[in-house]
């Protein structure tokens, strides 16, 4: 069973919701290696997963300030290093990144460098807005240049068929799921999308 590293084209793209859906669908464990600020995404995912056997693991770095990890770490007087990260379990993991791929962890390393250290497949979350094609294809280009294995793309929010088509055309990756602009984010919603994505992950 593959681990999945959930990244996105930016902050607030929907990584935490997608992580909850994946944990529900796969019965996987959840790990957020770096959390900057509160509330903790670990708590949000736990509140959305119905599986009574759900388990999460503590963050390697739990920082107080809602900011880029490198800046939040500086405020807390710590230094984040990719070499410090070790998988917390041999069970299947859904690993949620912080922000987008190029969010800095320190002066030299970025969030996506974690995916290069950890055995995993990357899932990209793209929320659709004016400019999201550019942001998504820049993310695609980066991941391809780094030769990271990518499982596919999840689109989040109001549909835009032409934006989705051109992104999938240029990435060559499959669409794993489309999350609508939901009025309520709760366990029932997560369960519904979990059943849908199961078919695309097999």
Describe this entry's structure for a reader.
- The chain is α/β, with parallel strands linked by helices and 202 residues long.
- The protein has a single domain, classed as P-loop containing nucleotide triphosphate hydrolases (Rossmann fold, 3-Layer(aba) Sandwich), CATH 3.40.50.300.
- The protein is built from 7 helices and 9 strands, in the order E-H-E-E-H-E-E-H-E-H-E-H-E-H-E-H.
- The strands form 2 sheets. It has a 7-stranded parallel beta sheet with strand order 4-2-6-1-7-8-9.
- The longest helix has 15 residues.
- The radius of gyration is 16 Å and the shape is globular.
- It starts with a strand and ends with a helix.
- The mean pLDDT is 96.
């Amino acid at each position: 069973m593959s681990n999945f590293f959930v990244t996105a084209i930016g902050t607030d793209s929907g990584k935490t919701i997608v992580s909850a859906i994946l944990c529900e669908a796969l019965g996987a464990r959840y790990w957020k290696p770096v959390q900057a600020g509160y509330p903790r995404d670990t708590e949000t995912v736990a509140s959305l997963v119905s599986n009574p056997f759900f388990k999460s693991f503590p963050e390697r770095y739990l920082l107080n300030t809602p900011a880029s990890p490198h800046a939040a770490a500086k405020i807390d007087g710590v230094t984040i290093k990719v070499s410090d990260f070790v998988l917390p379990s041999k069970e299947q993991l859904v690993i949620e990144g912080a922000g987008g791929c190029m969010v800095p962890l320190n002066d030299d390393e970025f969030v996506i460098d974690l995916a290069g250290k950890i055995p995993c497949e990357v899932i990209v979350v793209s929320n659709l807005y004016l400019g999201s094609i550019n942001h998504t294809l820049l993310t695609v280009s980066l991941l391809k240049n780094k030769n990271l294995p990518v499982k596919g793309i999840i689109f989040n929010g109001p549909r835009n068929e032409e934006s989705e088509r051109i992104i999938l055309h240029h990435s060559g990756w499959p669409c794993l799921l489309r999350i609508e602009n939901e009025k309520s984010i709760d366990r029932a919603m997560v369960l519904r999308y979990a059943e849908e994505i199961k078919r695309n992950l097999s």
